[in-house]
Write a structure and sequence with these properties.
10 helices
Amino acid sequence: MGQLGLRERKKLKTRIAIREATYRLIDEQGYDATTVEQIAEAAEVSASTVFRYFPTKEDIVLTDEYDPLLEDELRARPVDEPIVESLRHVLRRAVGLGFTEDPEVTRLRTRLMIEVPAVRSRLLESMSVTGRMLCRVIAERSGRDPGELEVRVFAMGLIAALTETAAYWAERGHEDDLGELVDRALSMLTTGFGTGVPEA
C-alpha cells in the first residue's frame, strides 16, 4: 500500500484517538456507562466528529483498519494456493503481529462482542463488509462471479467461522492461543470432523 497523504493521516489519527478513548473509558466504567459525549471529550473532539467517523458507539468498538490490509495480503499469496490456506497464512501472520493492536484491546473487543448484545448485533451487520472483500478475492482465484451463490456462501462461511473462533476465545477467558484456534477453525472447514460428529 502506498503512503497516506496528510489528510488521510489526520483522519486516521482522529479515528485512533476516538477508539483509544473509547477503550479506556469502557475499561474504567463499563460499556453501558460510557457515552459518546464522554468519548468525544476524552478524545478532544466534538460529538458530531465522533458520529462522522463512527455512526454508532458499537462501530467504535468493531471498526478497524485491517480489511484493506487483509485484502492486500491475500492478493499477495500464490494464485494457485487454496483460499483457506491463504487465509490461514495471512491470519497466522496477523495474530503473530498482534493485529498491530495492543493485545489488551483485542481481548476487550472480543469480550464486548460476547457480553454486549448491541455490539454482537452490530458485528453481524458489519460482517458483510469483510465478506464482500473475501468474495472478490475468491472470485478472482476461481474465475467465478463475486455475487455467485457458492462464492458468497463460502466467503460468509469463513467469516462466521472466524467470528465464532473469536467468541470461543473470549468465552474461555482468552486462555487459549488464538493462532491455534484459528488453525483449528480453518481445518474444520476443509476436513470436517474426520471421524464423525463428536458425541454430545
